[in-house]
Design brief:
The chain is an alpha/beta fold. 51% of the residues lie in helices and 16% in strands. The N terminus and C terminus are likely disordered.
């Protein structure tokens, strides 16, 4: 293995390292490994070292790190094998890995990049180049984490807004229900007072039909606004989807075409119906928000996996209501 030269006297160091980050240096050459580790510690990093691939994987799993500087050529377990193992595990799939290879070993570099390495440095190690590439990868990960944190915060705010809107919708629906009950009572009384051949019978019937439809819609709004845990029950997902399509068809952008369908023998599932409604509603509304210019929103339900269990029975023929 090529040896790392010490920095020349008077050579300017690069900018201060990202404080607090832990680097893992993996190299089967003791002198190379210890020298690079010492130089990185001098730059403010916490440094772990491993003499081989197996030891490196054990350290990553037991202690963790923020970035790996991984030698390509090692006996027993090569650097490429370690890289493959890191990328195969969900816990380390996005861990930054910088491969270390002898100058001119272009095939090593190509193989490493194709297998998921984030970057590479060549031997003999140039500390300034190595630090720049380490900082670049650490900054990238920090930016990704910050973006994820912002997205989670945004999702939480959106969920809180949805909750507030749900409570408001519940209050409005209760008020509207009281008005509809009055309309239905007076309409029923008026129809009873009218003769069977009265020309106003059709008008009163249409008023009562409209009031019944409106009552059903407010009942659906109240169901969606409820926050209690709910009791698990056998739910016909196809019927719930039909119901949501009927509800949403009145309120979403008219440029969006809803296309809902389910398998004719769709299994029923044991779950709180209101929770399933909220999940389906959130998915559909999020998809609608992603189509500001309109389009077709397609939702398909089908059976996957093994035969039905006691918590999943075939849909009853002709079933059409939640």
């Amino acid at each position: 293995m090529a040896k790392h030269p010490e920095p020349a006297a008077g050579r300017p160091d690069t900018a201060p390292a990202r404080q607090g980050s832990t680097l893992l240096v993996v190299d089967d050459d003791d002198l190379n490994r210890e020298m690079l580790g010492r130089r990185l510690k001098h730059q403010g990093f916490h440094v772990l070292t491993a003499p081989g691939g197996a030891e490196a994987l054990d350290l990553v799993r037991s202690r963790g790190c923020d970035l790996v500087l991984l030698d390509v050529m090692m006996p027993a377990v090569s650097g490429l094998d370690v890289l493959a193992a890191l990328r195969a595990s969900p816990a380390t799939a996005r861990l930054p890995v910088i491969m270390v290879t002898a100058r001119g070993d272009s095939q090593d570099i190509v193989d490493a990049l194709e297998r998921g390495a984030n970057d590479y440095v060549t031997k003999p190690i140039d500390l300034a180049v190595t630090l720049a590439r380490v900082r670049t990868q650490l900054d990238r990960v920090a930016a990704e984490r910050a973006a994820l944190a912002r997205q989670r915060h945004s999702d939480l705010q959106h969920a809180q807004k949805i909750s507030t809107v749900g409570h408001l919708a519940g209050g409005v629906a209760n008020g509207v229900n009281r008005l509809l009950s009055s309309i239905q009572d007076h309409g029923t009384s008026l129809r009873a007072d009218l003769g069977a051949d009265d020309v106003h019978q059709d008008d009163v019937s249409r008023i009562l039909e409209a009031a019944d439809t409106a009552t059903g819609l407010t009942r659906e709004l109240l169901a969606l606004s409820r926050r209690e845990p709910g009791t698990p029950q056998l739910v016909d997902l196809g019927a719930r989807l039909d119901w949501l399509g009927h509800l949403l068809g009145r309120v979403i952008d008219e440029r969006i075409v809803l296309d809902f369908s389910g398998s004719p023998d769709l299994w029923r599932v044991l779950a709180p119906a209101a929770h399933l409604d909220q999940v389906l509603l959130n998915l559909i509304l999020n998809a609608c928000e992603a189509m500001p210019e309109g389009g077709r929103l397609t939702v398909r339900l089908d059976n996957l996996g093994a035969d039905p269990t006691p918590t999943a029975w075939p849909r009853s023929p002709g079933s059409s209501s939640p």
